[in-house]
Design a protein that fits this description.
The complex is a heterodimer of chains A (about 110) and B (about 120). Chain A contains no helices and eleven strands. Chain A is mainly β. The model of chain A has no long low-confidence stretch (mean pLDDT about 95). Chain B is mainly beta. Classes of the chains: A mainly beta (about 110), B mainly beta (about 120).
Chain lengths: ~110, ~120
């Protein structure tokens, strides 16, 4: 199985900050990497698919990059509604697997 | 726009079978991989498996011996059965949909576009 490791596990930041979250796969997954945002009591919502493609309706301040084993999610200027938990997920091969999550909190 | 809604018991006794149904509206049954995912504090997000309209299934090996996912095209719903449950199966269970056209077998170029709201299932006597 492919293990997905995110860092950091939690992060404190302020509105307007630029934030980067990283995700590492235990083996090469090409660009079959997705990013999700989850707010308490709701289902995850896809932000980025195929490592760098922005899901329709997602603000352009979100961006993704990477290929192979190392990936990043960047939020260029944090907005109040961005404070949430973020997950990466590989869909390169089954069993599909998720990172453990990065909780983004207000400083 | 696909809409998904889970239903089923919120409490299941240990050793019994967990059964959930996901009602689908707004989408063609043949267009998606119909998927189950669960989320628990201890194990995070865990993919359980999916079914395609052809009837083909793909399960997480860690659960494969206990899981069955089925599809009822006449009723526009799909179901999850998980047998011999223990407290470790306590989780929020989500049904979800992945566009099959972006997939080749188990490799999908898109993430999970649609999710149900999730339903908490507790395993306890």
């Amino acid at each position: 199985d492919i293990q997905m490791t995110q860092s950091p596990s939690s992060l404190s930041a302020s509105v307007g900050d630029r934030v980067t979250i990283t995700c590492r796969a235990s083996q090469r997954i090409s660009n079959y990497l997705n990013w999700y945002q989850q707010k308490p009591g709701t289902a995850p919502k896809v932000l980025i698919y195929t490592a760098s493609s922005l899901q329709s309706g997602v603000p352009s301040r979100f961006s993704g990059s990477g290929s192979g084993t190392d990936f990043t999610l960047t939020i260029s200027s944090l907005q109040p509604e961005d404070f949430a938990t973020y997950y990466c997920q590989q869909t390169y091969t089954t069993p599909w697997s998720f990172g453990q999550g990065t909780k983004l909190e207000i400083k | 726009q696909v809409q998904l809604q889970e239903s089923g018991p919120g409490l299941v006794k240990p050793s019994e079978t967990l059964s959930l149904t996901c009602s689908v509206s707004g989408g063609s049954i043949s267009t998606y991989y119909w998927t189950w995912i669960r989320q628990s504090p201890g194990k995070g997000l865990e993919w359980i498996g999916y079914i395609y309209y052809s009837g083909s299934t793909n399960y997480n090996p860690s659960l494969k011996s206990r899981v069955t996912i089925s599809l009822d095209t006449s009723k526009n719903h799909f179901s999850l059965k998980l047998g011999s449950v223990t407290a470790a199966d306590t989780a929020v269970y989500y049904c979800a949909a992945v566009l099959a056209g972006y997939c080749s077998g188990g490799a999908c170029y898109r993430g999970i576009d649609y999710w149900g709201q999730g339903t908490l299932v507790t395993v306890s006597s």
